[in-house]
């Protein structure tokens, strides 16, 4: 019978286990064995020792708990079994005594003494568990008696067990179980404190990284804005044209950067969605909703700035001269990836015929220069029903 099948039969007040596991489960004997008077001073000193270890060497807390358990209980071997839920097994850590050579070994969650201990959430005692668990017997391990205590972090499920092995049967008693339960509970709190401190340290590191990244982004934005002002000023005939053109481009840049979000644990420091970017740029120009079709793509900060300027210029021209200047006009933007390149298509419809301009304006030059700078290509097709633009960009240019 699989242990998973019998877990529902295990109750704290009444243990009902199938043979042969019931034959090795002797927890009820703890209460009947002779017990020495509690040594509260020794217990206090042990807790103080664990506290000092937690403060100075948190990585040594579990090994210290194991050694204290061996000293207090007179065990010949001891260790910690930490449950790994992703693989459904325990892994042995901090082993000491005769079983130290099995450091790092794994045991099944659903067929092991440790599994029973976690299910009952209390100390348990077993005699010669190798009679019930063939993996113990197959490893050549003899366990006269083993005391297991759940290792629990406050506010969370048990993360594993502390186990102590005696050289002879009839060794452990109820006082051993009580003291080790107290020390294990304290160790659980210590581990939770260490875990909280580690999370806090990570959060501070992430905050510092974010601040450095924000500083870098601000410098980049000022650089882009400065270049934009200079280029727009050289090509504007009047101050009104300068103000209108520059305001539109800055607004597009601001809208695009509003989409950028931090992505910790990624090679891309700041990311945005291509579909969100195009939708945000087109929104102020639409007479009716545009059609956007393509896979969900994540783009980096520099790519956001480049694509924002490209789509802003296309949308502005469509609003002044193309499809978006007519009541029934609309824009369809599609994109797909192929052979390490992003291929985008801008298609205007309902434009009632637009001829190719006789001269190239600054906005067109800006689009072409931006695309060429990142290794891309652009083609324009001036059709009677509206302009069609095909843009090809290397995928690697989207990641920065």
UniProtKB/TrEMBL annotation:
EC number(s) reported in the record: 2.7.13.3
MF terms (GO), sorted A to Z: ATP binding; protein histidine kinase activity
Signal transduction histidine kinase HWE region domain residues: 213-296
Alphabetical keyword list: ATP-binding, Kinase, Nucleotide-binding, Phosphoprotein, Transferase
Keyword Signal: no
Keyword Transferase tagged: yes
SUPFAM superfamilies: ATPase domain of HSP90 chaperone/DNA topoisomerase II/histidine kinase, GAF domain-like
Gene3D superfamilies: 3.30.450.40, Histidine kinase-like ATPase, C-terminal domain
Lineage: superkingdom: Bacteria
Catalysed reactions listed for this entry: ATP + protein L-histidine = ADP + protein N-phospho-L-histidine
PANTHER family: ETHYLENE RESPONSE SENSOR PROTEIN, TWO-COMPONENT SYSTEM SENSOR PROTEIN
Name this protein carries in UniProt: histidine kinase
Organism: Bradyrhizobium diazoefficiens (strain JCM 10833 / BCRC 13528 / IAM 13628 / NBRC 14792 / USDA 110)
